[in-house]
Prior knowledge:
Elements: H1 2-34, E1 48-52, E2 58-63, H2 77-83, H3 91-98, E3 107-111, E4 117-122, E5 137-143, E6 149-158, E7 161-169, E8 175-182, E9 187-192, E10 196-203, E11 215-223, E12 226-235
Antiparallel strand pairs: 1-2, 2-3, 3-4, 4-5, 5-6, 6-7, 7-8, 8-9, 9-10, 10-11, 11-12
Amino acid sequence: MENRIESLERSLRQVKWALGITAGLILGLGITALRPAPEAAEVLRVRGIVVVDDEGRERILIGAPIPTVGNRVRTDLERVREVWAPRYPDPEQYMTYYRDYRHDTYGLVILDEGGFDRIAIGDPVPDPNIGKRIGPSTGVVINDEQGFERSGYGLLNVNGRKRVVLGLDSDRGTEGLVLVLDDEGGVGIAIRDEERSIHMGLVPAGDPRIPGGERFSGLMFQEGQVVTRVIGSKEP
């Protein structure tokens, strides 16, 4: 009987000891849960982020400006000389112009598996690979599988004058359909191919295409830079 009593007492002491530890752990976890999270954990500060695919190729570039990576065609002059320069009558002249194009952006660029820019969102977005923009553009650019711009929406700064443009480009690099609004009073839709264009809308006073420089509203047809027909009205 005495042995049984001693055994029960030992078991009781062990249970009390285990309960004490358990209570301490629960109290500690409760205090930790109630403690507010540190402010630093809520904000991530970085200069750039590079996201790679399952084969290690750089596919998404985020930064201010975006990081420079080896897989991107735009910043690899040897690949530019190989894939784009031969499209032009004078490849070396193209390369000379190309060195002055803007390739970075404060924002995001998505590359395809070959390293061609497919989507750019930023301020300002990169220049097209066929020439410099007439001014810096804040907006979105969509390119084809060879890196040629096919559509874009942006707010341009042209010598201090703002211009909002939505453009759809052909596979020949020309702006086939353009919706534009200019702070100087011009607004309209332009339809173009390589030689001809049709402009419907308002042309502000002083535009060199309108004889006399009057403000114009209506339709205007052009062959190259020559106005061939005008349907509309002129205003003083």
